[in-house]
Known about the structure:
The mean pLDDT is 90. The strands form 2 sheets. Strands 3-2-1-4-5-6 form a 6-stranded mixed β-sheet. The chain has a 3-stranded antiparallel β-sheet with strand order 7-8-9, with helices on both faces. The chain is of the alpha/beta class. It has one domain: UDP-N-acetylmuramoyl-L-alanine:D-glutamate ligase, CATH 3.40.1190. It starts with a helix and ends with a helix. Helix 4 runs parallel beside helix 5. This is hydroxymethylpyrimidine kinase. Pathway: Cofactor biosynthesis; thiamine diphosphate biosynthesis. One of its GO terms (biological process) is thiamine diphosphate biosynthetic process.
Amino acid sequence: MSDVMMARPVCLTIGGSDSCGGAGIQADLRVFDRLGVYGCSAITALTAQNPLHIARIEPVSLAQLDAELHALFDYYDVAVVKTGMLLDAEHVAVVSGLLAELHHGSLVVDPVMISSSGSVLLDQGGVAALRGALLPQAALITPNLDEADALLGQPSGYAADSPVEAVKALREALGCPVLLKGGHADGDMLLDLLCDEEEGIHRFTHIRQCWSAGEGHGTGCRLASAVAAGLANQMPLVPAVEAAIAFLQECTA
């Protein structure tokens, strides 16, 4: 490994492999590289997909995931971990247990629950395990509006209609800062809301981009990984979120 790579802070992404490269591990590693951090990965599942649908999901064995994480933490001083698709309670348990044991930096959780095409990417047991074991370790969780409704047990559309109330409720219920992503809302102007450690609300508005299906695929992954890169580069949370949103608006792939 070059001295330049070794000089970069290390970010580890844990999630699914996206065969079309727009989301998941592939997207995260591209973002890490562009934002000046060295990226490592541990894969929870292989997917056969394109920007329009997921044809198949093949879980990685728990033994393989355990081995990947041990191998990485044995060698690298990981500054920030970002998690994506975790599939089920068993995979969440491996990840949360090893991070509690081995990781001493920040954790950004992207609660990948349902794909834009409707595929379930985290089952109900996994949601419970996420809330009970992983989120207590998190520096930030980044749900979209649909995921916020699911985490709050609210009907579809609640977070879109009442985003401030939703992000406050998530911050209280989950016990960690929350970035509520507004990309699934209607209208030409979108609103992302951050409820920080002190329960302060920060608003980030931006114009809806005219992205193709391929460009829009994986935007949530890229936003969360950009926040993780900012934290690894020693940015405080609010500036890291602001920089990540600006990066995503300027760079679609």
